[in-house]
Amino acid sequence: EVDLSAEDVIDKLEIGGVLGYRAESEKWSFMAEGAFVGLGQTNHGLTMDLDMTVIEADAGYRLSEHSELFAGVRYTGLDVRIAGTRPGSGTAFDVKNDDDFFDPLVGFRFAAPLSDSGKWRVQGRGDIGGFGVGSDITYQAIAGVNWQVSEMFAAKAGYRYFYQDYENDG
């Protein structure tokens, strides 16, 4: 079981990043996003490494100028490695395991301007998924500020709470 606080993740973060794409019309939207997080730690000769890739795609239907409902799919890939030396015998070991799964999801997204120019917006999103298809349940909540750098590019700062309840007998 992996249960890490934001402080634990930052402390053990080796690399991480998010890249997304969004297209929208008057009534419809499409979003694709990929995220990668690499965590690692070495203590007393024991090395632990966890890499997680999450890719999402969804289509949304606009309810108003600032809100929409969406449905989509989330792919999660997990790679775990533990390596070290057994106490006493001194024998080296290296255990690796990886798994991946897909989850359907539904959610709600909003965005409202913070400036007259429209370059700054507050944004939020919440979704729930899994439903026993890949994970038992997954959900996330995102809140942040968006700066529209140009017509084609934006920068975001915010906070994401992400939860997955996934088990595999292997």
Fold and architecture overview:
It is a single chain. With 170 residues, this protein is mainly beta. 4% of the residues lie in helices and 71% in strands. The chain has one helix at residues 6-12; strands at residues 13-24, 28-43, 46-62, 67-85, 92-113, 120-129, 137-148, 154-165. Strands 1-2-3-4-5-6-7-8 form an eight-stranded antiparallel beta sheet. The longest helix is centred in the first third of the chain and has 7 residues, at 6-12. The protein is elongated.
Strand content: over 45%
Kindly report how far apart the N and C termini lie.
Answer: 13 Å
The succession of helices and strands, N to C, reads HEEEEEEEE
Main sheet?
8 strands, antiparallel
Helices, by number, come to 1
SSE arrangement:
Elements: H1 6-12, E1 13-24, E2 28-43, E3 46-62, E4 67-85, E5 92-113, E6 120-129, E7 137-148, E8 154-165
Antiparallel strand pairs: 1-2, 2-3, 3-4, 4-5, 5-6, 6-7, 7-8
Question: What does this entry show, briefly?
Answer:
This protein is mainly beta. The chain is built from one helix and eight strands. It has an eight-stranded antiparallel sheet.
What key phrases describe this protein's structure?
mainly beta; 1 helix; 4% helix; eight-stranded antiparallel beta sheet
